[in-house]
Amino acid sequence: MKLERKHAVLFLLIAAWNVVSYANFAKNLLAAQQSGEERPTGYWVAHLVLIVVNLVIAVVLGRLGLRTWRATGRDAHRDDPARLSA
Q: Are 3 and 57 in contact (CB under 8 A)?
């Protein structure tokens, strides 16, 4: 399968969504903890792991999206018929 610009856009959008949504989730989790909400330690650990894993996924997809975007830009420019006839 060859990655195209549409795939790069999808990867970048998913990465951005993960960062925004899980940053908000982390903020809300921190506010709950600071307000003294009583929860078992496993609750806090599980949610923290969830946040970290999803932010790592965002970084991986973001890097893949940027690399794909740059690669397809070079390919599109190289194969441009107008450029070849000039």
A: no
Token pair belonging to 71: 């690669």
pLDDT in tens, 16-39: 999 999 999 999 999 999 999 999
Rounded Cα–Cα distance for residues 39 and 7 (Å): 41
Place of tokens 């450029």: 83
Q: Which helix (H) or strand (E) holds 4?
A: none
Computed from CA positions of residues 64, 65, 68, 70, in that sequence, does the dihedral angle turn out positive or negative?
Answer: negative
Q: List pLDDT tens digits, range 34-66.
A: 999 999 999 999 999 999 999 999 999 999 999
Is pTM beyond 0.85? Reply is no
Distance of CA 77 to the CA centre of its chain: 26
Length of the chain: 86
> Which parts of 3-69 are beta strand (E)?
none
